[in-house]
Write a structure and sequence with these properties.
There is one protein chain. The protein has 302 residues and is of the alpha/beta class. It has eight helices and 19 strands. A hairpin with a 4-residue loop joins strand 16 (274-276) and strand 17.
């Protein structure tokens, strides 16, 4: 089935709520700037009700949900969106309440914040709440968005653990089931800044039928029809295609040994570029920067 809804996955900026950034300056005034001027604005533009959209921010993945939720409310308010609420689900029991179910049914946009993606899969997996989101995404002009952990958990399979520096050691990258909004891809975030390319290489080598998506900070993808990936935001997105792998040692070496891979194909996407997940084709579109974090598409390259 071709989904009628839209999926937005975002690499994240300063990832409030993750263990890696918990002690950073969480009041940094510019950490969500790219959302305000780019990605969040595009989300509102793509929603049928525009500024009248009802948005539910799900902070389940975060260790500091109150702070994260308040920042998202403020950022959407700056875009003249007032119907923004925080759906504070911290346990599976919370996800099963009548209030949570009704809010899932009535939202126009649901957005999963950053933090720990394993919390998302373990709390929402198999629940009526998740089934409602999937059904609405398939049957309605409904938007699901996720940043950082919320993006990583969007696919059927997700990376939930793996040391960046030792990612190409067999057994170092851990993969489990995600929320299941999109199949045949696996997503990693904070991709460039945290040196996670090895994690994605390993994940793709273990299943070359999956397209690896590495989202940089300030980078996102707008996914329509389940197959059209458009780069949004000012950062870079790396795609790793394993279909042409000619040889790999991943199935031969022992746990703890380095892995070799021959002939991975890599694409780099920037703002307005599009990738067809069925045809496996990248279309590069030219953009110019007109002011800080604001870009205009000029024309398609021939």
């Amino acid at each position: 089935m071709v989904p009628k809804g839209k999926l937005v996955i975002i690499g994240g900026a300063v990832d409030l709520g993750s263990s890696l950034s918990y002690n950073e300056n969480i009041n940094h005034p510019h950490y969500i700037k790219f959302f305000e001027r780019g990605i969040l604005r595009r989300m509102i533009t793509e929603s049928p009700k525009k500024e009248e959209s009802v948005i539910e921010v799900i902070t389940t993945a975060s260790k500091i949900p109150e702070i994260v939720g308040a920042e998202y409310i403020k950022s959407f308010n700056q875009l003249q969106v007032s119907k923004v609420h925080v759906l504070d689900i911290r346990t599976r029991e919370d996800a099963l309440t009548e209030e949570s179910i009704e809010r899932a049914k009535n939202a126009d946009i649901v957005m999963f914040s950053g933090g720990d993606q394993l919390r998302l899969s373990s709390i929402f997996g198999g629940t009526e709440f998740l089934e409602i989101l999937k059904r609405r995404y398939e049957q309605e002009d409904f938007m699901i968005a996720g940043t950082s952990a919320g993006a990583a958990a969007a696919s059927v399979n997700m990376i939930y653990r793996g040391n960046s520096s030792e990612a190409l050691i067999k057994g170092e990258v851990q993969i489990t089931g995600g929320l299941g909004f999109i199949d045949d891809v696996i997503i990693d975030t904070h991709f460039v800044q945290r040196g996670r390319i090895g994690r994605l290489f390993y994940a793709v080598a273990s299943n070359p039928g999956m397209l690896g998506i590495g989202l940089g900070e300030d980078a996102g993808l707008l996914i329509t029809g389940g197959t059209c990936l458009e780069a949004i935001g000012s950062g870079l997105t790396i795609l790793v295609d394993g279909r042409y792998i000619s040889e790999t040692s991943i199935y031969d070496v022992e746990i703890g040994s380095p892995v070799s891979i021959d002939n991975l194909k890599v694409h780099v996407m920037s703002i307005f570029d599009k990738y067809d997940l069925h045809k496996h084709e990248l279309k590069i579109n030219k953009a110019i920067k007109v002011e800080e974090d604001v870009y205009l598409r000029i024309k398609d390259y021939d």
